[in-house]
Amino acid sequence: MGSTSPWSGWANAEIYDAFAREHTIYRQLNEHLVRAAEIATARRVLDLACGTGLTAEACLAVLPPDGELVGADASAEMVELARSRVTDPRASFEVVPAARITRKLDGPFDRAVSNAAFWQFPTRRPVLAALARLLEAGALFAFNVPAERLSGETTEMHPFQAALARAIERRNDRPFPRTATTLEPKRIERQLAEAGFEPTRRERLDVRCRQRELMELMEIPAMLRPMTPDLEETDREELLAEARGRSDPDQRVTVPWVVFVATRRAD
Fold first, then answer.
1. Is the peptide bond before 146 cis (omega within 30 degrees of 0)?
2. For every one of its 267 residues, what pLDDT tens digit does the chain have, with 9 covering 90 and above?
3. Quick one: the chain helix, strand, coil %, rounded to 5?
4. Across the chain, where does the E strand assignment appear?
């Protein structure tokens, strides 16, 4: 994510950090990613698009005492919060876009993780190429993608999501695009292979939460702005209030994700 990324700015960093630490969605994703990447046996971990350090904390909880973790994110505000939140001496954080990580980071790493970010990279091939240069042969790379972003995955629109979509449609007077980006899992795996990775596993993870979490997730500016680029902040607040009023915050829902694991091939 570059300087013009929708994730830049203190509002994104602070609201995201508060949300992720209070609610369970990112915690569940991080815990699963740590297991998938086998962090407990890692030596040196790269946390790609590290945000404010929650994935780093999950990794550090199981990383061996002599291990090291380096987090990288294009948002200076996210990295500044990560540095203040994560005080473990095994961790360090750098401000650098994912596709340019080789400009600031030195390999080799034997693990890489990226939580809730992969599908948001403007171009994925340069990111994978840069990552491949930093990972040693046999290194594991684990990342996740919301199932609704993947073709061929069965997903269900929850009442709050439907209410928000209807509110946006009424405000824009045009149909709401159900998914901004649809990726083909096979294409992702081809891109991994082209970059020097062997796709080894793909599994679905059902994250369970209450609709209240989805409501508060949409309060992060970067979550709603891409869906409403022509609206002012006051209009977005009104949309959220309308959708909240039509939904039950205590209703339990399931949000499916798909986790990809790949192994760095020997050159």
1. no
2. 334 577 899 999 999 999 999 999 999 999 999 999 999 999 999 999 999 999 999 999 999 999 999 999 999 999 999 999 999 999 999 999 999 999 999 999 999 999 999 999 989 999 999 999 999 999 999 999 999 999 999 888 899 999 999 999 988 777 776 555 689 999 999 999 999 999 999 999 999 999 999 999 999 999 998 888 888 999 999 999 999 999 999 999 999 999 999 999 998
3. 45, 25, 30
4. 44-48, 68-73, 91-95, 109-114, 135-146, 197-210, 252-264
Pair 63, 33: CB distance under 8 Å: no
**pTM score, whole prediction:** 0.94
Residue 248 CA to residue 222 CA, distance in Å, equals: 24
- Domain 10-153+181-209+254-264: give its CATH code: 3.40.50.150
How, if at all, do strands 252-264 and 197-210 pair? antiparallel
